[in-house]
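Lecture notes, part 5. Sequence design as translation. It can be helpful to think of inverse folding as translation between two languages: the language of shapes and the language of residues. The source text, in structure tokens, appears below.
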């Protein structure tokens, strides 16, 4: 009583690696309150480490092939989700072109509810890429680790006798396993369009989940083309090229 100051100590109930904000509030016998400035506590026992890497397209998991390689198309958005320990404050995915050595960096975001880091990524040029995990923790420890390889292929192209056909309509039909009825594939959960129009270079963009399908392709002034039925066991890209035949238009003016 009567002292102008007092000392105290406590131990924060945290043990996992990470950066923690700390603020102290004190109350005296008269009910006066004071709040300290915010301090940062860094707990650093481990360097950043990653596990449980998952690639997906909407609800569909994209599994690597037997060589651990992910197959995709140019500009196809793929989501990566991973688990991290070590208290990282910044996590990135780096894609390095194996041939040209050019790199592209994608920053991942942490979900505060489950602690997982994720984001989408896409690559604009075809080729083979080495994916790398890069992370920095609160003590400036940096970790890099190689992940899967990615092979990026060209998109499929719709052509006519004179070259690529822009604004062709590509529709994907899916066979419902139980009823065996063919229906237009619902692409919205997979962040794709169906039907979709080809771009100025005649290209279309499809990455399909497992199932049985066929494609219907239409273009003004050309015969409708239906592909053969095909079955996909693991989710993967479709980039076949198709050539359309022009319609043979016969005019008849009758007898004169």
């Amino acid at each position: 009583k009567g002292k102008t100051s007092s000392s105290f100590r406590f131990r924060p109930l945290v043990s996992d690696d990470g950066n923690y904000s700390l603020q102290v509030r004190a109350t005296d016998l008269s009910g006066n309150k004071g709040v300290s400035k915010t301090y940062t506590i860094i707990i650093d026992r481990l360097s950043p480490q990653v596990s449980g890497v998952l690639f997906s397209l909407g609800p569909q998991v994209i599994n690597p092939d037997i060589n651990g390689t992910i197959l995709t198309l140019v500009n196809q958005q793929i989501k990566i989700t991973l688990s991290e320990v070590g208290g990282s404050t910044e996590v990135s995915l780096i894609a390095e072109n194996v041939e040209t050595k050019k790199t592209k960096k994608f920053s991942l975001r942490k979900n505060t509810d489950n602690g997982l880091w994720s984001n989408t990524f896409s690559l604009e040029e075809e080729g083979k890429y080495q994916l790398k995990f890069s992370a920095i923790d609160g003590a400036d420890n940096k970790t890099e680790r190689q992940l899967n390889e990615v092979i990026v292929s060209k998109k499929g192209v719709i052509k006519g006798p004179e070259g690529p056909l822009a604004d062709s309509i590509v529709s994907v039909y899916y066979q419902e396993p139980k009823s065996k009825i063919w229906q237009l594939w619902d692409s919205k959960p997979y962040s794709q369009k169906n039907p979709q129009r080809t771009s100025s270079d005649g290209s279309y963009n499809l990455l399909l989940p497992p199932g049985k399908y066929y494609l219907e392709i239409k273009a003004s002034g050309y015969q409708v083309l239906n592909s053969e039925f095909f079955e996909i066991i693991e989710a993967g890209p479709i980039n076949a090229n198709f050539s359309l035949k022009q319609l043979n238009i016969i005019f008849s003016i009758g007898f004169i």
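The translated text above is only one of many valid answers, since several sequences can fold into similar shapes. The radius of gyration is 28 Å.
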